[in-house]
Amino acid sequence: MRLEDIALTFVPQLGVRGIAHLLECFGSAEAIFSTSLAELRERGSLREDVARNVVAHKGFAEAERELEYCYRNNLTALASTDEKYPKLLREIDDYPHVLYVRGEVEALSRRAVAFVGTRKMSPYGDRMCNAMIKSLAEAVPEVSIVSGLAYGIDGAAHRAALAAGAVTVGVIANPLPNVTPTANERLAAEIVGRGGAIVTELSSQTKQNGRYFIPHNRKGSNHRRRNCRTFGRCCRCGVTRRGRFALDSLICRWLWPLGYGCTGACDGRKFSRLQYPYPQS
């Protein structure tokens, strides 16, 4: 991780996809900031105002503040060009160039399964989430359970993983070291204390306005391609959006209706009617 990597995420008018495109063209943040205005315009296909922001090294002051913030709060900044960056997350089109990690960075690279679901969890959903994670941890001792550290199924997945002795990773939509919802701060501390990690793509200088939850969904789902279990409730909820991200990336094996008001079962009587086909490779 270099200062240039964080600075790249602070360049005005340069979004996540723009950063990914420039990295594909030039290979590294350092090379991008060393490139001429003309080459950024022609080879990088940048608008002139954005290219001038890069040439002027806009974002470096913010990056220095962010590095200091990371040191002060015991956070690790991880660039997509770093060896420990999750390889499968790097495969999506709009991967975040920098991740901020609280806890063990190595936990992000373990073999893992993502569990995401409704906040309005039913007792049945809680029971099935615990049963599946317990069985999974017994069958694959090195597995890591990835979820969103939210109320409902997400929190239940993390707790079930800890109870089963598995490493777990929380992907959140707010800057670290704080956790939202604050009621899960103790859970987050236990996750980190047991060899897991809390991860976000949002810097400390991000203004929270609620618009980061859907981008956060695509990160949580794609962190573990081909291994995503989704517990749904309705056609408009966040869990269904995560399911759609997973399906679009060909990573979702199952979508189970485990919230209140849902039908179907998967505890030995029958499988849910909401199973999605999983393309075999």
List keywords for this structure.
single chain; alpha/beta; elongated; 8-stranded mixed beta sheet; 281 residues
Describe this structure in words.
Helices cover 38% and strands 14% of the residues. The protein is α/β, with parallel strands linked by helices. It has an eight-stranded mixed sheet, sandwiched between helices.
Task: Give a concise summary.
The protein is α/β, with parallel strands linked by helices. The protein has helices spanning 3-9, 16-26, 29-33, 37-42, 48-55, 60-72, 123-139, 153-163, 185-193, 213-222, 238-248, and strands at 76-79, 98-103, 112-117, 144-147, 167-171, 197-200, 228-232, 252-257.
Percent range of helical residues: 25-40%
Proportion of residues in β-strands: 5-15%
How many beta-strand runs?
8
Radius of gyration from the CA trace?
20 Å
Uncertain runs are 233-237, 243-255, 257-281
Q: What string gives the helices and strands in order?
A: HHHHHHEEEHEHEHEHEHE
Mean pLDDT value? 82
* Total DSSP helices: 11
Structural class by secondary-structure content? alpha/beta
Give the overall form: elongated
Distance between the termini: 34 Å
Largest sheet: 8 strands, mixed
Which strand order does the major sheet show? 1-2-6-5-4-3-7-8
Blueprint of the fold:
Layout: H1 3-9, H2 16-26, H3 29-33, H4 37-42, H5 48-55, H6 60-72, E1 76-79, E2 98-103, E3 112-117, H7 123-139, E4 144-147, H8 153-163, E5 167-171, H9 185-193, E6 197-200, H10 213-222, E7 228-232, H11 238-248, E8 252-257
Parallel strand pairs: 3-4, 3-7, 4-5, 5-6, 7-8
Antiparallel strand pairs: 1-2, 2-6
